[in-house]
Input
Amino acid sequence: MPACGSPRDAPSVMRRYPPPMDLFNGTTGATDGTAHGIRVGIGGWTYAPWRDNFYPKGLVQRRELEHASRHVTSIEINGTYYGTQKPATYAKWRDETPDSFVFSAKAPMRIMQSRALAKTGPQVEDFVGGIAELGAKLGPLVWQFDAGLKLERESFAAFCSLLPREANGRALRHVLDVRDPAFVDADYLALARSHGFATVFTDSPEHPSFADLTADFVYARLMRSRSEIATGYQAHELDAWAQRAQQWAAGGEPDNLPRIGMETVPAKPRDVFLYFISAAKERNPAAAMALIERLDRR
Output
């Protein structure tokens, strides 16, 4: 199974750990959680190669989230794509991370792969109801429709109307990630804007890549890390992404990214969620920490 939170349900007994300064000798890559509304992170936290270049030697696996969440400012949970967790598991993850930390999460693929999208309301409610246990640490929910899925416009629009606007009194943020190039067009953007849903920007050549803004926040996946570079991306590339992230956060739009349409949106501050995902995955924590360092200096 790909790197994720935990492929199994966690025990219901919650453990309290020492503060991070005691646990990791004061070493931390992340500060107060954000840099000007920008969160930078990785996909998952359970990945064997990270035990050689990210996690301290001898760190037990059950404390890897604790460590990772103190060196990046957000994590995209991808284990939920393969199956939901029990509320107790989400509560455990919530309690192991700093107060300022935020998770995003991929919705279960069985929902997006349903042949009756418009009738998935109960499954959506089940997923959201459980993951709401993350409380204030729950960030965007990502609805990933892989290439090859046959999407019908009317059914897709009905599905979007099913996504709840809040859970337990907290506003929810939704992200659409449609990977069929033929479906990603001006009508798709208009639908996302009508709901206030973000769409994924990725620098990957394998998926639709566009930076049109459709929400009051930005969700970006950087998927071109290289194993031969210690930080995954070259220094000048990280500098460029730091600048773009700051442009987004300040209400602007980078002029050097691909777009589908010409429509502009009001310039106002936005939250930015940026993750280093896939590719040379062993380098992604270093890439995230290098970008956080650049943002902290600006």
Summary: The chain has one domain: 20-297. DSSP finds ten helices and ten strands in the chain. Residues 235-250 form the longest helix (16 residues). The chain has a mean pLDDT of 90.
